[in-house]
Amino acid sequence: QVQLVESGGGLVQAGGSLRLSCTASGSTFSSNAMGWYRQGPGKQREWVADISPFGGTRYVDSVKGRFTISRDNAKNTVYLQMNSLKPEDTAVYYCNRISHQYTWGQGTQVTVSS
What we know:
Elements: E1 3-7, E2 10-13, E3 18-25, E4 34-39, E5 46-51, E6 57-59, E7 67-72, E8 77-82, E9 91-97, E10 108-113
Parallel strand pairs: 2-10
Antiparallel strand pairs: 1-3, 3-8, 4-5, 4-9, 5-6, 7-8, 9-10
């Protein structure tokens, strides 16, 4: 049973930065493409970014140039560095495998004030 634990969220002013972490226990983490997703108030969950086992990255257009996804396979952890945050980035952020997804974790709340 894989468990995903997200952390690092918080309240930040517009223009600020946060670094999210997600640790996956009990999985062959290094062989999986991992992604970050978010669900804003009253919205559906959306894909934000992902990273392949070899380090290739992709981003949704709205965060390109501001967010950076990375991974540390030795720690079974994927990160999301978020800079120049905007109020519209306010959401609960989740990580998961890109395909054949695991049970979702509790997520971590990011609130950006204007």
